[in-house]
Amino acid sequence: MKLTPVGVDIAKQVFQVHWVDPQTGEVVSWQIRRATFLSHFANRAPCLIGMEACGGSQHWARHLEQMGHQVKLMPGQAVKAFVSGNKSDVADARAIWTAVQQSGVRSVTVKTESQQAVLALHRMRQQLIRFRTMQINGLRGLLTEYGEVMAVGRAALNRAMADVLARLEARLPTMLVDTLREQWQRLDVLDEQIARIERRLSDWMKEERACRQIADIPGVGLLTATAAVATMGDPKAFHSGREFAAWLGLVPRQTGTGGRIRLHGISKRGDVYLRTLLIHGARSVLARAKEPGPWLEQLGRRRPHNVVIVALANKMARTIWALLAHGRTYEKGYVSTRAA
Q: What are phi and psi of 150, to 5 degrees?
């Protein structure tokens, strides 16, 4: 059964829908209010619905799939290539309708609410860490105005802060010293909030079999395991581990013409957060491993240190995909063989 392609440009209140009637060939471009969006598709035959992967798209995709429709979420960068003329809701919906019919356009996996919840915890934890860094830098900047300079690091700040505030009490107004003390104590509140999120992630990791499968990979800890499982969604959406690593931006960027191909640095496409976790995990393996292995030793003699780190992160990403896609557990020294 051939599904009718439909392009949907979602927004907060008004959605633009574009399709071509398969019976009459009429081009239909409608505006649908948010409240009636799902009811419009509830009474239609199964369609191939294309949407940009943006805020709210996962929510609508889950509901549409429950109605029997096939949903393809596409990166905005891929859809932009099909926009002709000035940007508008009508032009965007038409571009999405065109893109959803192209076989070469990459799609984003529709995630479950549980996977999205885990990613939300990661985003909130990341935001709290950013707030904590801003708070520390703000305190250091204010104290520098009064001649109080401390060593680098959170531990050095905690060691020196009590004595600094005691010295400032004799010189500055009490209202300022009390406020500085409150802002310093607020760091402990942020620490506790971050720790609570990490405990919740740890509880989910114990319940999720996929997280336990990849947790034994060197360099993959709590954050990387939970983020990888939630970000990947369905591992079968990727044809190979290399495709997953390329999706994360851990492969060289290529340019070429006339049959000559040039390799550059890593492309840095895809999910920045997960790529950062993998690279940090690879860096910790190289720094702490007593026996890094012959592959890493040979690569380290030929390539710079940071290149070795990214290569190991690439290998970790491919290993994560292989374990999740084939339902295997990690085996140290395992050598894959091509099927006969």
A: -115, 165
Give the pLDDT band (50/70/90) at residue 144.
very high
Query: What is the structure's pLDDT at 284?
Result: 94
In the numeric block, which tokens belong to residue 321? 């995909």
Q: Is 250 helix (H, G, I), strand (E, B) or coil?
A: coil
Place of tokens 């290529």: 254
Domains of the chain, start order: 4-99 (3.30.420.140), 113-207 (no CATH), 211-326 (no CATH)
pLDDT at 335: 73
Residue 339, pLDDT score? 56
Contacts 24+ apart (CB under 8 A), 111-114: 111/58, 111/230, 111/233, 112/62, 112/233, 113/62
